[in-house]
Give the backbone structure.
Amino acid sequence: MCGRYATTKDAPDLSALFEAFDDTRDGLVADYNVAPTDPVPVVRMSQRLGGRTLSVARWGLVPSWSGDTKGAARMINARAETVATTPAYARAFAGKRCLVPADGWYEWVRKPGGGKQAYFMTAPEPVVFGGLWAAWGDQKLLTCSIVTMAALGDLALVHNRMPLVLAPDRWAAWLAGGGDAGELLAPPSDATLAGIEIRPVGAAVGDVRNDGPDLVARVAAPALAAPHEEPVELTLF
């Protein structure tokens, strides 16, 4: 499975938004075409630093008990339906949850006449995904995964899955240890969903070598008319 999203806010802005200590050490760069195993910003609780911390993690969770990092690209997302019980994710869900800030995420829909149309799901304010993190190996390699759920509302016209999007009033509970899984994994509110724009964008985002703001520019495309039932090869979730 491949995947794409965009995250372009700089460390000072993210640190201020989440009231988090900046521990990125100049390792955070804007990326309009994030792919599995790329470095991305995450906000997590750090005992060492005593509170919310903005860190750089590699996208693709590697559990601390894993013998190697070879499977990371297959661990970019964790299904909300099973995240609390699946061995690879359960420990992180119980005590190592993080926030994954993004400008938005991409999905692809098959065109009636053939080919694929890319869409960018975005909002005026940063879109924040519920995530998990883990530290692996002697070097404590920081890795992360994004929690996903069944798509809701108009987002189901693009794909049958979507990231768990967290509004600001849910950030503290997500970052805290423990908690009720049902409440933590509750779908976003109607207001949050209504604020997400489904924007058709150009085909260039399909190539991981492409980057830059042109990737999120709106292009003309036919209106979405029916639920998307089958995942497309480039799907994120």
